[in-house]
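Example: histidine kinase.
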Amino acid sequence: MVMVPEYSPDEVTRLQRKVAVYRRLKKEYREKEKELELLKEEFNNARREMEQLGLYPRVFEEKGKLSGICRCAVDISEYVRWGRQAERALWDQINFMQTLIDTIPSPIFYKDINGVYQGCNNAFCSLVGINREDIIGKTVHYLFPRELSAIYSEKDLLLLEKPGFQMYESRVKNAGGTYRDVIFYKATYIDTEGKAAGIVGVAIDITERKGMEEDLRLSEERFKKAFNASPAGIFIHRAMDRRIIDVNDSFILSSGYSREELIGRSIDDVDLWVNPEDNGRVYEYILKGGSVHNLEVRYYGKNGEIRTGLFSAEIIVIDGEECVLSLFFDTTENDRLKSELARLNRLSLVGEMAAGIGHEIRNPMTTVRGFLQMLGGKEGFVNYREYFDVMISELDRANSIITEFLGMAGNKQANLKSRNINDIIGKITPLILADANNLEMSLKIATGNIPDILLDEKELRQLIFNLVRNGFEAMSPGGELTVATFMDNGEVVLSVKDQGKGIPPETLDRIGTPFYTTKESGTGLGLATCHSIASRHRAKIEVVSSPGETIFYVRFKSAGETAATDDFRAG
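Written out as structure tokens, the predicted fold is:
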């Protein structure tokens, strides 16, 4: 059962009339709306646009019928046409700009003030490995790992706080997990009110460049290590002004100069060449052929010592500038070793000769000397006794030469025992002092704290006597001879220094050669014997001479070094 409100008959009658009028008006209104739509269609067909400002229905009662509807319309066709043209132009501009940035090979992107990506080019998509549709509308926190997005976000905030330009180096991890090294160039863009509206950025991929830089760094590091580790002395100078730009450790060691004394100086200002014409000759070869190899040269060290070596040079280019890479392979020590080996070979040959014929010569000489002594004592030869004495003296001299010969015998075994050189010097000092007094010279003994080493006492006595005798013979009355011992670089050193006139440089290398002497009465065997004794003790003799002074150094290995050498040879 439906409940309805209670109305009076009059109210029901009036209500029914209103409903009927409403229904009629609604029907007429719809008919007028259709007329309005037709009118609008006529406007549109006329290529016109109108904007409906409002609907104000007015019912004009003519016999109780709706006579019309009043509406107001404004012709906006020109505005609509302009708007559509502007919209098309805007889309054309957007498409052009997208095509333009897609053509640029460098990755480009732009964001709004909230850090949300608004667009990017194809290169940026390739860099990060993500499609454009998946980038736009996202932030760095959604697209990149936390450690990288934190950097990007912090840099963006700094740029927005101080609008302008920003550049920094960082990395990008693409969707495939590969990292790329990049440099970001960013700037803010502004809106119509002049406020920062967002950020536009360009990423320059420097992965290959950094790889090449790293390869170059490693190459330079390898070159530097090889440069400084080379046993040959190397220096580099510019070809134009010949100024030295680098030297290696071996050249510093062999030349005696410091790096600071060489860098920046012209090679012509460094007094290297013993023969100045070698300088011009060498660089003439370089200019003609671009390089020289293994030229035998002599050059000065800083202390004036003449050194020998093999010189090579090559033109190279450093930072676009021609330079000359010069290499000295110092052969000074090698040449000395060769000379020493040749001298030892000569000594060995002489020793072998002495061992072979010494006894055979000595026996008849002893017989001759005995008969000369016997005949010299007879009455009939009294008047010739002086001649007999001369002959006996010469036989004794020949016998002493043979003794020295035998002292150089290479197969002679030294009786090595642990002894101290200072003790041996102490035993023979009275004999040396007596000779000094007879020659009106002074003797100075300066023994240091040295360890015991393996020595043949008899042979060491002979070595010291020979060196001392040479020193006395080199000096004039009043001179002083110094015998000293000390430690140097782990070696036990015996030195004998005289105050003679010195040994000429041109004869210094020949000292110790059998039968070579600078003395009128010398045999040339004293120093040769010293070298043989030193060789049997695995020692070496060095000579340093200058006007007014000559020093002989005998360098012995310590007992520990000698034992280590023996173990090495035995193994």
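The first strand starts at residue 50 and ends at 56.
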